[in-house]
Specification:
- By secondary structure, the chain is mostly helical.
- The protein has a domain of 51 residues.
- Helix content is 52%, strand content 4%.
- The radius of gyration is 24 Å and the shape is flat.
Length: 109
């Protein structure tokens, strides 16, 4: 992975390429997983494993369940983004940067 005796241009290119490709590989595996789940169905979570006849179809049960979960997450996420963007921020992030002044929380040991 290094491509030499130290971290160099080759190392950075390889890690950037890996960093770029891995999310697409994961997305591809998610789609393959959904295709297999859609074809074979899933067991009823309430009944459990009894026999192969107790399988639920992928649509509408799992699609609607995941869509409701995604909708709830997106509502909460957009509420935080648009109405309370500073909720998780730190007050030190609003201090104007000055190269001549060391921040007060940085002290020698």
């Amino acid at each position: 992975m290094w491509g030499g005796f130290s971290v160099d241009n080759a190392t950075l290119n390889r890690f950037y390429g890996l960093h770029f490709v891995v999310p697409f590989a994961i997305l591809g595996l998610v789609f393959v997983h959904l295709i297999f789940l859609h074809d074979s169905g899933s067991l009823d979570p309430v009944v459990g494993l009894r026999n192969t006849q107790d399988k639920l179809p992928f649509y509408p049960y799992f699609v609607v369940k995941d869509a409701v979960g995604l909708l709830i997450f997106l509502v909460l996420f957009f509420f935080c983004v648009f109405f309370t963007p500073d909720l998780l921020g730190h007050p030190d992030n609003y201090i104007e940067g000055n190269a001549l002044v060391t921040p007060a929380h940085i002290v020698p040991e």
